[in-house]
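Cross-check.
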Amino acid sequence: MIASTENIPTLIEENDFTINKLETLYLQSWKSTSFNYWRVAEIK
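Predicted model, tokenized:
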């Protein structure tokens, strides 16, 4: 199953990580590669 982009931060936090920094960017491209996440996370 492929996770939708809206759920990426939730999936990270539900798996015992804390997101310290999250940046997102929409790039005009074909749909499966157009929304990108850059993040710093650590284990809770």
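The helical segments are 8-14. The longest strand covers residues 17-26. Passed to J.P. for a second look.
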